[in-house]
Amino acid sequence: MAGGGFDDKSRGARAHLYEYKITSYFVCSCIVAAIGGSLFGYDLGISGGVTSMDDFLKIFFPEVYKRKQEHLKETDYCKYDNQILTLFTSSLYFAALISAFGASHITRKKGRKASILCGAVSFFVGAVLNAAAKNIAMLIIGRCLLGFGIGFSNQAVPLYLSEMAPAKVRGAVNQLFQLSTCLGVLIANFVNYGTAKIHPWGWRLSLGIATIPAMFMFIGGLFLPETPNSLVEQGKLEKARQVLEKVRGTTRVDAEFADLVDASNAARAIKHPFRNLLSRKNRPQLVIGALAIPAFQQLSGMNSILFYSPVIFQSLGFGSGAALYSSAITGGALVVAALISMAFVDKFGRRAFFLEAGVEMICVMVAVAITLALEFGQGVILPKGIGIFLVIIICIFVLAYGRSWGPLGWLVPSEIFPLETRSAGQSMVVCVNMIFTSLIAQCFLVSLCHLKYGVFLLFAGFIIIMTCFIYFLLPETKQVPIEEIYLLWEKHWLWKRYCSSEENGIELKNGDKV
């Protein structure tokens, strides 16, 4: 509950008094902050392409390169089954989940801007190390530094965007993060397509170009304003009011500023935000925002397609160039989906996108599994028509994910936590997300090898569970002010049992009462 241990009746019901205009200052601030998503996206797109390049495999993974050339020696599903190769990808996400906890402290005490700058520096150093790598150890260390950068940026950027945005356009503004991520994926795919023709150092160029978004993020971050929420949380009330007036384009911000101050007073009473996140009144935020949504986002199977789309398409019989080109097509579909979501999420709502896209994703996963079961065998190159069909339905899957679980997996958690647990909650979101991202990255290729087409049926099963979870447990949050989201839990058929004032009574100041 956003009011913590204070009387919530003094808050809420002020949303109709909020005033705002879309100012150039607000737009520029959000666009610069959203560049943080491009770090995540570029890495998602670049990793799979680099690991399918022969020059890269010859230096670091000669066994995989040799196996790749021997198409008929084993089932094609298993060409890239190598745990050290997948560690190259997943090490970044293990590092990101560790850094998320340090990012929480910095985000809360020093502000969202500080975490954005820390993420840019770490990502830049990691990209330089990867581009100059001489051995696997350098690769893994560089990947870990990239992971630290992603941990900081993924923790801070969604919070920054949600806090800066007026309630009525918060969904679209927050999805600038996802759009930036998708553009990063798309650019990475085209970079891979070009550098794959540069022998023998094209892969170094692919990895080194990651320094460019990091530099943009750092230079832009130096000029970013801190969010009013964070400034109030740090006790800088006068500065917070000035920034709020500037981003809203009006001096009539009394109601919104009063809500920020009330939320901050509640936040200051909480000495242990992670412990408070476990309290009874925060049960819906913990279950939905910190655990279920970030885990389900990865269990959809989408990031496996992004990580390994060049590898998947090669395993399905596409040539190396055709595989990278097909990956670029899926990257383009992801950008289109993000634009669709930005345009309509504040009109139709979060639940509508989750549920409609969930049905599409289930159908596509089942169709992929059936196609591979019928047409794909040992050492067999798929017919051209079947290959085109797979690319098309994978694009349909990407379009569905890209307007639902992709952007909303970051939007919904960033808007449902009360201020007193917002940094801690977002750290949990990043941590859980990266745990499942790294596990799937580490296990997908070995699962593809052993489960074959069954791995896509497994993902279909997960998506069925995810869709049912959203239908029964997530209330609609569109156009609800971020400091009044707690009112939704008090009206929900299940969560009102945990969040009603009668159930919770008076909270202790240290937030320990459950």
From TrEMBL:
It is a multi-pass membrane protein. It is found in: Membrane. GO terms for cellular component: membrane. It holds the Pfam family Sugar_tr. GO terms for molecular function: monosaccharide transmembrane transporter activity; symporter activity. PROSITE patterns: MFS, SUGAR_TRANSPORT_1, SUGAR_TRANSPORT_2. Keywords: Membrane, Sugar transport, Symport, Transmembrane, Transmembrane helix, Transport. InterPro entries: MFS_dom, MFS_STP/MST-like_plant, MFS_sugar_transport-like, MFS_trans_sf, STP/PLT_plant, Sugar/inositol_transpt, Sugar_transporter_CS. The keyword Transmembrane helix applies. Belongs to the major facilitator superfamily. Sugar transporter (TC 2.A.1.1) family. NCBIfam families: SP (TIGR00879). This is Major facilitator superfamily (MFS) profile domain-containing protein. It comes from Solanum pinnatisectum (tansyleaf nightshade).
